[in-house]
Amino acid sequence: MDRTVLSLPIGKSSEYTHKHGVYSIQLNRDIVEPYCQNPNGYLTFREAGGGHMHWLYQVVSPAGLILDPQQPLSAQLVKLSIQLPISQQVRLSSYMQAVTTRLKGDYRKVQRFYVLTPQQDNPDGYQPTLGPLPLKPHPTDNNTGERYYSLEELLNNRKLR
Fold it and tell me: pLDDT tens-digit profile of 131-147?
């Protein structure tokens, strides 16, 4: 089994990605698309201010749902002939509403959306079932763009290459 994990920097949408278990990326960025074809689809995000990674996710939606966050989700899914479980539709719709209302700008444009690992029952909100990275690993150097780590590196180290 491939145990490679894609690590992406996350900015303004961090709060909403963690809350709803959805990640979006502008259409002109192809960072995630090839990776999501990987059978395990492991993903983590590097937070601003040091790049600490807190959670391990897995992409569960069809790779890169291209959607307009300002249009009704259900109509778009019907048009694209995509069926998502109601729980994923709710999370996706809530994320789209949150980022377009609070972040504005590019978040109002058509984007690729990824629904992440199913949530655990948690009264405090979304929690990915793959769970936390207990050591909160981070790269030694500040970096942008995608980085690849082994799952073992993320579980056993605080500082990464």
Answer: 788 899 999 887 777 88
